[in-house]
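Researcher: Quick one. two chains, 673 residues in total.
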Amino acid sequence: MKQKEFNFKDYIRNRYFPHIWCPGCGHGIVLGALLRAVHELGLEKNEIVVTSGIGCSSRISGYVDFHTLHTIHGRALAFATGVKLSKPSLKAIVPMGDGDALAIGGNHFIHAARRNIDITAIVMNNRIYGMTGGQFSPLSGSGKKATTAPYLTIDRAFDIVDLAKSAGATFVARSTVFHATESKDIIKKAITHKGFSVVEILTQCPTYYGRKNKEGDAIQMMEGFNTHTAKIGSKKLENNPNLIQRGIFVEDKTVPEYCEAYDQIIATAMKESL
Amino acid sequence: MHMIESGNVAAATGVKLARANVIAAYPITPQTPLTEKLSEFVAAGELAAEYIPVESEHSAMAVCIAASSAGARAFTATSANGLLYMNEQLHWAAGARLPIVMCVANRGIGAPWTVWNDHQDTISQRDGGWIQIYANDHQQIIDSVIKAFYLAQTVSIPVMVCYDGYILSHTYMPFEKPDQDQVDAFLPPFTPENMLDPDRPYNFNTVTLPDVRPDIHGQTAPGYMEIRHCLHQDMRGSIQVLEEIDKKFQAAFGRGGHPFVEPYKCEDADHVVVCMGSLSYHFRDVIDLLSQEGLKIGVMGVQLYRPFPEKAIVEALYQKKSIMVFEKALSYGNQGALYADIKSALYPCENRPEMKNFILGLGGREIKTSILVETVRNAVKHTAASDDHPMWVGLKCQE
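Model:
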C-alpha cells in the first residue's frame, strides 16, 4: 500500500496554533523533522508518547497530536521513564532544550543514558534560555553574551555528544536545523533504535542568542550551522577537523535495553518463587 | 530619588542598596527580570557581590545556605514551581537559622501549567520556618527588601518578600529609591556570631538524637526539640522585632507605620474585607464604591503572614459585624489558609464577627472590580453561610 502523502495537519493539534515561537526560531524545523520522521516510519499516533519539561522546545508536547505529557522543568526524562516502564510498547520521545536537558535536568539525562532505556531524547540546542528571556545555559559556552552575562560568560559548555556517549547512551547523533532532511533521517533511526537515543539538533534563537552575540538574523545563523559543521567522514571535515561534527557517533545494538532487562529479571524471580 | 520602574527592578534595587554579597538564582517567569537586573549590577561593578548562575532552584538555595553560613548576606528569588523545587533547602535554611532573603514573584503552581499570578506557591510554604511578608505595591517591595535583611539578621531567620507576579513584578509604578548613605546608616553590617571560618572550626547542623545529650565539654546541649522550640519562640519574637525595625525605618525614610496589617477605612466599618498583596489596594476602589452606597466597609491587607500577627488582627477585627476573607490560594479540601488563621485568632473574642471565605484569581483569572463589588454587596446582605464554602468568585463553567 502506498503511504499517504505527508500532511502537517494530520499530526498537530490545530487549536494550539499559532505556536509561541518567535519569528526565525529554529524549533519549527525540528518539529517538522520529527513529524516527517514519524510519518515515514508509518507510526500510528497512538503508538507515541511525547513528554516534555519546560522551555520553548517543550511546548512541542502541546502541538503534536500524540499521547502527550507536559511535565515539570528538567523532569521530562523521569516522566518518560515511568511511562516507558509501565507501557514499554509505546515509543517515548522527549523533545528538550539545552537548559531543560543539561542544567536542571542534567541528572536525569545521564541516568537515562546509563540505564539505556528505550527513549528518544531530542535536545534542541539553541545555547540559551529563550523562554525566560535569554539567560545563559550550560551550552552557551564561554565568551558569550546573555542577559545574565552582559559582559561575557566564563562558564564552559558541555559537549552533548561526548556527555551522552560517556554516560552510556547507545545511539548518539548530531545535526542542525540547516540540515532538515538529515535531522529527519537521524530522528527516524533514533526512534527505531532500541535503547536510549540522544539526538542533538543545533537550532537558532535569533531573538536572544543571535541578537546578544551579533550572529545576525535567523538566515545568517542557519548558514552558520552549515559553515561551521561537517559530516563525519566528509572531505570538509578532513580539511578542517575543528568544525563541529554532524552525523551518528554511536549506534550500539549490543547493550540490553532497560525494560527488556527488567522483564528478564521478573521472569527469573517468578521462576525462583515457583 | 524618584523612580518609575517595574516591581522586579524595585526588588533588585532594594537588594543592591542592602549590599547583598552573594546572589544565586535560576530563571523562572515572572521572577527572571529581577535576577537579570542583579546580574547587570554585579557585572557592571555597581554591586560588589558574587552572582552565581546555578543550574536549578535547589542549587540556588544551597548556594545561599553555604554563603550565609560563611557570613555573607545572601539573596535569591524565584516563583511557583521554582519555590517548590527549593522546598528541602527552604526548611534547611530556616532550621539552620540563616538570615537569607528571598523574593518570590507569586505565581500559580502546575499541574496544569500556569505562569500567571496567585498565592498558592508561598502559602504552601507557610509552615517551613520562614518569615513571610507580602508587599502591596512597588514602594513596599523595595522597602520590605531592605527591612527584610535587617529583620533576618536580627532574629537569624530567613525572610521571604512576596509580591504578585505580573501585577506587581512586570508593571511600572513610581516609587521612592532611598539613598545609599541612608540605607548604610539604617542597616547594620551582618556579623554573625557563628560562621564558617577556617580559624574557628565549627560543626553545623549535625545529627541530633531524640533526647538531649552532653557536648564535648560535658554540658547538656539542646536536642532537636529544644532547637525547634527556639525557632518557634524566635519567630514569635520577630513580630516585636519587625515593629521596632519598622519604627526605625519610618524615622529614617518617612514611610511605614503598619508592619503587620494595612487597614483602609476600617475604623468605623461594620464589615471588613481581608486579603493579601496587590488585591488589598485593588479593593480600595471597591470599598470606595460601596461606601458611596452607604455601606460602612473597609479593607485590610495582611502584610506579615508568618509569624502570624494575631494581636494586630484581633485589634483590627474583633468588633466588626462581618469579615470577608478573599484569597488567591486554598488549602485543598479545607478552606483558605488566611481565613483559617483569622478565624482561629478571633476564636477567643466575645461576639465573634460573621466570617466568609472567598477564593479568586487562581492562575491569573481576571479579578474585575465590578465582580468584587457585586460579591461583597451580596455577602453583606446574606449573612447565612453558604453550603459551598469557601465560595469561588469568577468561576465560569462548572465541570
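The interface with chain A takes residues 26-29, 32-33, 35-36, 39-40, 43-44, 51, 53, 55-56, 81-82, 85, 110, 112-113 of chain B (CB under 8 Å).
Researcher: Thanks, that's what I needed.
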